[in-house]
Amino acid sequence: MYTLGIDIGSTASKCLILKDGKEIVSTSTVSVGTGTTGPKRALEEVLKNAKMAIEEMDFIMATGYGRNSIDIADDRMSELSCHARGAVFLFPNVKTVIDIGGQDIKVLKINSQGMLENFVMNDKCAAGTGRFLEVMARVLEVEVVELGKLSKQSTKEVNISSTCTVFAESEVISQLAKKTEIVDIIKGIHRAVASKVAGLAKRLGVEEDVIMTGGVAKNEGIVEALESEIGKNIRVSEYTQHVGALGAALFGYKKAKKKK
Ligand code: ADP
Question: What's the 178 CA to ligand 1 centre distance in angstroms?
């Protein structure tokens, strides 16, 4: 039995095909999200990677901010439930999920039955999100995918006091004018993000195992800064950006089994 999870975020479109509720067959990522051609392209790509046709999918579950725009979906679920479900599948002992996406930060508390118990979210602002890091990378003239590696080369502590995109941008420009090393500025940016995310997480209480999900967890500099801020290890799956799509495919499997 094959189920397809489609996660349409604000910034990226992700798909994942799951076989029999346990084996990941294929994934795709397109770096544009809802309201763009991203969802259609991600869908074409995941099917092409799996050498399968849409008719072979037993259930299609959509999630994410743009889930209502997918008319081929059999059903839709919130990204909170899907991230929790995907994280529990990958890390059965997870108690805290920290999801940083393109425009939001969510912290989920998972109970001992592996169910979502509570959550907190950032307000409607890009502070400390993937978008914030993309703007900072642009000002520093580096690629967002290089931030983690570059921050590892830092030798000097630089304080970036704000995660407001506008204020931080002017702080970064003034550091550049002072000829501060780019790698040190990046590490300062990571610490600022970590401090904001940890503040949010502490409102819920951070219990181990702590898992990070979402595209920003691919930045190892952010993961490291957050580990030191919360004083706990953080685990990240190679499927970090697909955890929501995985959760959707898992819920889809449950529904498909009921239908048969
Ligand atoms: P959403 O679901 O909100 O659209 P995602 O969880 O897909 O967001 O994450 C998108 C964010 O992840 C983007 O801001 C992007 O810059 C960041 N991202 C994706 N890949 C990487 C990477 N390799 N290194 C650092 N950041 C990344």
Answer: 30
Q: Is 27 helix (H, G, I), strand (E, B) or coil?
A: strand
Whether 108 and 213 have beta carbons less than 8 Å apart is answered as no
Taking Cα atoms as reference points, which of 2, 14, 65 lies closest to residue 39? 14
| Residues 192 and 228 both lie in one domain | yes
Q: Which domain holds residue 245?
A: 1-91+241-260
Identify whether residues 113 and 232 lie together within a single domain: yes
- pTM above the 0.90 mark? yes
pLDDT digits (tens, 9 = 90+) for 182-232: 999 999 999 999 999 999 999 999 999 999 999 999 999 999 999 999 999
Atom in ligand 1 nearest the alpha carbon of residue 79: 2
Do residues 102 and 185 share a domain? yes
Nearest Cα neighbor of 239 from 2, 15, 56, 41 is 15
